[in-house]
Design a protein that fits this description.
With about 150 residues, the chain is mainly β. It is about 5% helix and about 40% strand. The strands form 3 sheets. A 4-stranded antiparallel beta sheet has the order 3-10-5-8, with no helix packed on it. Strands 4-9-6-7 form a 4-stranded antiparallel beta sheet, with no helix packed on it.
């Protein structure tokens, strides 16, 4: 299934858009990451930066009946995890602490049928950059360093 975008030349497949339009592609939401058939040909990763408020756990990515993977590195001391389910029926998985030198990976699998969220907890409000992949891609490290 080919992804179609509105480029300067009209509605074009992703691989026919110019460089400016391709930059915009990388800034769009995760709908471009995975089409309904979970194909990952034109845009299989997305580096995102989000402003995270200090305090409790904050959701950076949500999954419902989908697979995904994300890599985090900074800020040092931040905690990341995957939260499956809803409310008191939910449970945490893959809790890790970021050290600033190694990439830490979170993966969401079939447990997202119930609901899954990748979450982060920081001690002070900051911007967090991470690399997210949709679907069941076999990636062990980010394709682009950040």
């Amino acid at each position: 299934m080919s992804k179609i975008l509105s480029c300067k030349g009209g509605m074009l497949p992703v691989n026919r858009c110019n460089a400016v339009d391709k930059q915009k592609i990388s800034e769009l939401s995760s709908e471009l990451l995975v089409d309904s058939d979970h194909n990952h040909k034109e845009n299989k990763f997305m580096i995102r930066t989000k402003r995270i408020e200090a305090g409790d756990w904050r959701t950076v990515e949500s999954f419902w009946n989908a697979n995904g993977k994300a890599f985090f590195k900074l800020p040092v001391g931040a905690s990341i995890k995957v939260r499956y389910g809803v409310g008191f029926l939910g449970f945490d998985s893959q809790k890790q602490t970021l050290n600033g030198s190694d990439y830490k990976q979170l993966s969401v699998g079939t447990g997202s049928v119930a609901r899954a969220r990748m979450q982060i907890k920081v001690s002070q409000t900051t911007d967090v950059t991470y690399d997210v992949y949709g679907g069941g891609v076999a990636v062990t490290t980010p394709e682009i360093s950040f």
